[in-house]
Amino acid sequence: MEYIINLLRLTQAQRSAFARAAQGHEQIFAPDGTAPDGSPLPAEVYRRATAILGNPPPELLRECRSLRLLQTRTAGVDRYNRPGTLPPGTALYSASGAYGQSVSEHMFAVLLSLMKRLPGYRDQQRQGLWADLGPVKTLDGAVVLCLGVGDLGSCFCKLCKAMGAHTLGIRRDLSKAAPGVDELRPMEELDELLPRADVVALMLPHAPDTVHVMDWRRLELMRPDAILLNGGRGSAVDCAALAQVMEAGRLWGAGLDVTDPEPLPPDHPLWRQERAIITPHSAGDAHLAVTMDRVAAIALERLRRFL
Fold first, then answer.
1. pTM of the predicted protein model
2. Which residues lie across from 70 on neighbouring strands?
3. Residue 285 confidence (pLDDT) above 90
């Protein structure tokens, strides 16, 4: 018999589906790791688990010697990939595929806001000012370069393409299709593609070769009036270098849902950069109801396969 800990936030119908899938096995439901009395789930309960659905505290997993499956509710699994976090032989799965709509719509809204100078107009509104801020940008005919065209990047490119943009995608495996991407290119061509792009969007996972992929040198390769977006992992952009580049007058704007470090310290110059929009890693998570429905569907299928 398997011992399953289900940490997902579920509707009653979803919980019933998980109960049916695990019939004959023991499954406890503890949304976000909370016991029925509202207290945190005790460590001894985690130690019994053979399967966990959701995001348990990483520090408790080393003692889970029976654990064979961890299916997270997040697309990123950085916290669980560190050596020694999971018992040997544990299969680790992310919820990649659940967040494309939520993250892409958020970053697309940030992009249009920057293109149309909406942050500046909002600042003027608070001051009671009625003043035209000048020319704006359009995606019609623009070149959008997206680093990382999995679920997030592909969904974002489809939105840009619908507005008339030409989309370029960078990914490791060029044999995999990427809906919404007009041209797929390898990372080795990044330096020559950056000067072509009106928009550079990063939808990359955290990996050793993606840390500060957009450093000062590459930020300087971008067009002076280009827009930089980061909706993947904060480590992909050197935020100190980005602040320097923008203070020097380069770039039309930057939209960041993730930063390095995260959160930015209160005295970081990007907070005061008028051409930047910074949101607190809120593009994904549970802010869009359909996202959690997709997470539940992914976890339910994974549980069925495991059993």
1. 0.93
2. 52, 92
3. no
